[in-house]
Write a structure and sequence with these properties.
Helix content is 74%, strand content 1%. The protein is mostly helical. The protein has a single domain, classed as Growth Hormone, Chain: A (Up-down Bundle), CATH 1.20.1250. It has a two-stranded antiparallel ribbon with strand order 1-2. The chain is globular, with a radius of gyration of 22 Å. The two termini are 20 Å apart.
Length: 457
């Protein structure tokens, strides 16, 4: 089955529309969210606080004042992401409830995408000491990304029958990693060769941020044109009022009755544990490579690109494994590999590039696959008519618990004074997730949700 052809039972136009939204938003995730914007916003904040960009020779110790609180310039970007994450945990379920009541679901998804793309594009104006503008745009971009993904994930159920969802989800995730890799490679080339291009480093970074916004916005037109709107089904009848009021009522009803779907709830809890482990490993890898293993920035950048490139093939491979061994067992196998990765990370020798790159390749293999299959597996457990709402709980729960892994990592490092035991401690999240996932009876959960049984689970 070719990557360019749609799986059986899936309309080719909608297959491409769905897949290319992963391609579109990954430009923002990699260029802005993962690599460039946090250090750039830090330099802007340091300029505002101290009049210069801090270095190891002349660090900036002056705080910014935010609502009467002193904020370190070096912590600003992380605080903004934290606030956006916590706000998302409350906001996204409302987005999901609204989406399930709308006939023009794709317009809601693309509207959030274009708003986020506009925020990312406007990052080109963040310079000098304008940290307030940078913080606001980062908040808006992250919130719009999460909101669009809630609606996007629910569309998987609309376009793909149960037996095709693993393939569609895995391929879309693969397209996302490929798109993110291409744009990030171009932008890192521009930033690295800024002198040869006649640009200052700051200008090169700002143009790269602009390119991420334009990439996200432009490629979002593909799903807007190719995806079809569908009337809502099995909408829960709640008290009268406008759509916002009805959506709050539907959300309250779902939270009240979610105990009627214990398998769905157990899967969600398992996902929150192992996904927190995944996100934490990714977020701390650069710090671990620099501070514990002593690698320069160029090595870290090369490793990030390697992970993105390998993840394209890893997501496709996991889709094939799921067809042969079943989705649940494939995810569980991936979690075992994740545990081996953090153990290997504990034993990595300092200053040796090849073992570090090998670990990056291993991360790439399981990164996209475990997340893509988790999305398709969860889609099988959602009652009809509440797709976006349940995926909002999926996204909001992820955001509401995503601080646990970094907290454990930070506490273990503080207690031991080393990042090595901190990295291996993250294996606990994969172990707990694996144990909980092994107790999920997928067949029973699919029946409880009233959905059609796929051939393999």
């Amino acid at each position: 089955m070719g990557l360019l052809s749609a799986p059986a039972g899936v309309d080719k136009r909608e297959y491409w529309g769905f897949s290319l939204y992963d391609w579109a938003n990954s430009g923002y995730v990699t260029t802005v969210g993962t690599v460039l914007f946090a250090p750039y916003l830090t330099s802007v904040a340091e300029t505002a606080a101290c009049g210069y960009v801090g270095t190891s020779d002349k660090p900036c110790h002056t705080n910014l004042e935010v609502l009467g609180l002193g904020i370190s310039p070096g912590s600003l970007a992380f605080y903004v992401v934290t606030v956006a994450t916590l706000f998302s945990a409350f906001f996204l379920p409302i987005v999901g409830a609204i989406a399930d009541r709308l006939e023009r679901k794709k317009l809601l998804m693309c509207g959030f995408a274009w708003a986020g793309a506009l925020a990312a594009s406007c990052m080109v104006f963040v310079e000098g000491g304008s940290w307030q503008l940078g913080a606001l745009l980062l908040f808006i971009g992250n919130l719009c990304l999460g909101s669009s993904l809630v609606v996007y994930d629910s569309i998987l159920i609309d376009i793909a029958p149960p037996d095709a969802r693993d393939d569609v989800s895995s391929r879309a995730w693969a397209f996302g990693y490929l798109g993110g890799f291409i744009l990030l490679a171009i932008n890192l080339g521009v930033v690295t060769a800024h002198d040869a291009l006649g640009l200052s480093q700051g200008t090169a970074v700002r143009l790269s941020l602009l390119s991420a916004g334009l990439w996200w916005g432009a490629f979002t037109f593909v799903p807007f044109v190719r995806l079809r709107n569908r009337p809502p089904t099995n909408v829960v009848q709640v008290r009268s009022g406008n759509i916002i009021r009805q959506s709050f009522g539907q959300l309250a009803a779902t939270l009240t009755h979610i105990r009627a779907y214990p398998v769905t709830l157990l899967f969600l809890v398992a996902y929150l544990f192992f996904n927190d482990g995944i996100q934490t490993v990714i977020s701390v890898s650069s710090t671990y490579g620099e501070k514990q293993l002593g690698f320069e920035t160029q090595v870290l950048i090369m490793t990030i690109l390697l992970v993105q490139f390998i993840a394209f093939f890893g997501a496709l491979a996991f889709g094939r494994f799921a067809r042969r061994f079943g989705t649940q067992r494939t995810i569980m196998g991936g979690l075992v590999v994740w545990m081996l990765i953090v153990i290997a990370g504990f034993m990595l020798p300092a200053g040796q590039i090849l073992p570090f790159l090998a670990m990056g390749a291993a991360i790439g293999i399981v990164l996209g696959g475990t997340q893509a299959l988790s999305r398709s597996a969860f889609s099988q457990l959602i009652p009809k008519g509440r797709e976006a709402e349940y995926f909002s709980l999926y996204q909001a729960g992820e955001r509401g618990t995503s601080w646990l892994g970094t907290l454990v990592f930070g506490l273990v490092h503080q207690i031991t004074g080393s990042y090595r035991p901190a990295i291996v401690a993250l294996g606990l999240f994969f172990l707990v997730g694996l144990i909980l996932l092994s107790r999920v009876d997928m067949r029973r959960g699919i029946d409880e949700a009233g959905n059609t049984q796929p051939t393999m689970v």
